[in-house]
Structure formats: structure tokens, C-alpha cells
Design brief:
Elements: H1 15-39, H2 44-56, H3 62-68, H4 74-87, H5 93-100, E1 108-110, E2 129-131, H6 133-143, H7 154-161, H8 165-173, H9 178-182, H10 184-205, H11 209-218, H12 224-234, H13 239-251, H14 257-266
Antiparallel strand pairs: 1-2
Helix pairs in contact: 2-4, 3-4, 4-6, 5-6, 7-10, 7-11, 8-10, 10-12, 11-12, 11-13, 12-14, 13-14
């Protein structure tokens, strides 16, 4: 009896997913062949190793990660600081505090971090980037528990306490003014706002009364985005930390809508 060889060509439910899987594997291999050699030249291999060690959560890796925080390449230092934050080991606090307080670590050139994103299908990959290691160390610190209480974002709190409220108020009022935005003052106000917004995000990530006080300080600053972020984060904090400060803001007179949000909810 002659075998019907056309049966394989007939529609089957399993054939579509299988062909799709084979196509995905071929594309992955092709993309990897284009991408991985660009990523894993030294010192990319050290940065990738630091990221992998953090995912493994190996305590034996902490001394190595601490040494990598002094690596000549900024990308390796960034990966090591982020890894130490994920490890949450208090042994790393001194080196992270040193990085978090060093202004020179705010912009350091280095290799890009490989996070399994191939930058699109056969896309161009930057070989060098500027990394904010200081900011990464500050984020890492708040992930490490304190001895008796949660570790607060002290550096970000200081940034908010020293906020130039007039600058962020001008920026909020002049967003639609292209001449102001492109002027030296507008650019300067934008940088002040960006630093304040990033500090607010960091403070919001860490619990504690000093952080709550810093967020309350943002209420009434005149910038809607900062006030909105502060108000909604205050709703996640203990009532006793929030309500007295909010009452003081409202008592100053002419409170903003965002200042009234936590006051209305907690009252």
C-alpha cells in the first residue's frame, strides 16, 4: 500500500505553534550572534557577572561585589552597587555610603548593562554610557534594613529640605512658555525639578518619619507633579506621621488641592 506523503502538509493544530517556536529560536540565535559579542567584551563580562551574582543571592559574592565598586569602569561599578542593594547585606553599607556621598560618582562613563534586552532586532548598541552611580548607591542603601528600624533615604531627604521652591514654581507656571523653557533660567529650573522629583521617588520608596516630614514639606511648593507624588505617597504612611504636618500646611492658608488630599482622607 502506497503511503500518503501529503498528510504532513495537511493543517494540524500543533504545526503552527511549533513553526513559531522554531522561528523564535532562529531569530534569537541570529540576534545573539550580532549582540552578545558587543556586550561581553571586557569589562562587560564583569558587569554581567555582578548582575548574575545578585540574582543568585550568594552571600559569598558580597566581598567580590564590594571590590567591584572600585572598578575603573562606571558600568561595572553601577552593576555592583545595584547588586549589593539586591543582596540587602549590611556589610555593604560603608562602601555604598561612600559612593552615595561622592559628587564625582554622579556621572561616570562605562559600558552599558546587559539586561536581556537586545535593543530591538539587530539594533545599534551603545558601547559607552554615562552612569549615575551615586543615585544607584542611594537606592541600594534604602533596600538594606537598618539595625533597629527601616533605613531612611537621608541623602534624598536633605535634597528635598534644600529645595528651591521658587524655581519649581516658576517651572510649573512656565511650562507652556517655549522662550522660558529654552532660556538659561528655564534649563536651570528644569534640572532643579528633575533632582527633586528623583529625590521624592527615593523618599517614597523608604518608610520612616523623616521621609514623611520631607514629603509634607513638598505640599504647597507650587509644582503640581511634586505635590501630586508627595500627596499620594503620604496616603500609604501611618496616620500619626502625616496628619499633624498636613494640618500645619493647611493652617498656613490657601492650601493647594494636593495638600487637601491627605488631610481629607485621614480626617
Amino acid at each position: 500500500m502506497k503511503k500518503d506523503r501529503s498528510a504532513f502538509l495537511r493543517p494540524r493544530r500543533w504545526r503552527g505553534p511549533l513553526l513559531g517556536l522554531l522561528l523564535a529560536v532562529c531569530l534569537l540565535l541570529w540576534t545573539s550572534a550580532e549582540t552578545l559579542p558587543k556586550y561581553f567584551y571586557p569589562p562587560c563580562d564583569r558587569a554581567w557577572a555582578a548582575t548574575c551574582l545578585a540574582r543568585m543571592q550568594s552571600k559569598k559574592a558580597v566581598p567580590l561585589l564590594i571590590r567591584l565598586c572600585d572598578d575603573p569602569d562606571g558600568g561595572v561599578r553601577l552593576a555592583a552597587a545595584q547588586a549589593l542593594g539586591e543582596m540587602k547585606n549590611p556589610v555593604a553599607v560603608p562602601i555604598l555610603e561612600r559612593l552615595a556621598t561622592d559628587p564625582a560618582q554622579a556621572s561616570v562613563g562605562g559600558v552599558p548593562l546587559f539586561d536581556s534586552d537586545f535593543y530591538g532586532w539587530r539594533g545599534n548598541i551603545p558601547l559607552r554610557q554615562n552612569h549615575n552611580i551615586r543615585q544607584a548607591a542611594q537606592w541600594a542603601l534604602v533596600n538594606i534594613p537598618g539595625a533597629n528600624a527601616p533605613r531612611e533615604a537621608l541623602f534624598a531627604i536633605a535634597e528635598l529640605d534644600a529645595l528651591d521652591r521658587e524655581a519649581v514654581r516658576r517651572l510649573n507656571a512656565g511650562l507652556s512658555d517655549r522662550e522660558y523653557r529654552n532660556s538659561p533660567r528655564g534649563i536651570s529650573d528644569g534640572l532643579i525639578y528633575s533632582k527633586a522629583y528623583e529625590a521624592m521617588r527615593l523618599v517614597s520608596h523608604a518608610a520612616g518619619p523623616r521621609g514623611s516630614a520631607a514629603l509634607i514639606h513638598l505640599l504647597g511648593c507650587g509644582n503640581e507633579n511634586l505635590e501630586l507624588g508627595a500627596a499620594y505617597n503620604l496616603l500609604t504612611r501611618p496616620r500619626d506621621e502625616v496628619l499633624p504636618g498636613v494640618h500645619a500646611v493647611v493652617a498656613r492658608g490657601n492650601p493647594s488641592c494636593m495638600s487637601l488630599v491627605p488631610a481629607c482622607v485621614y480626617c
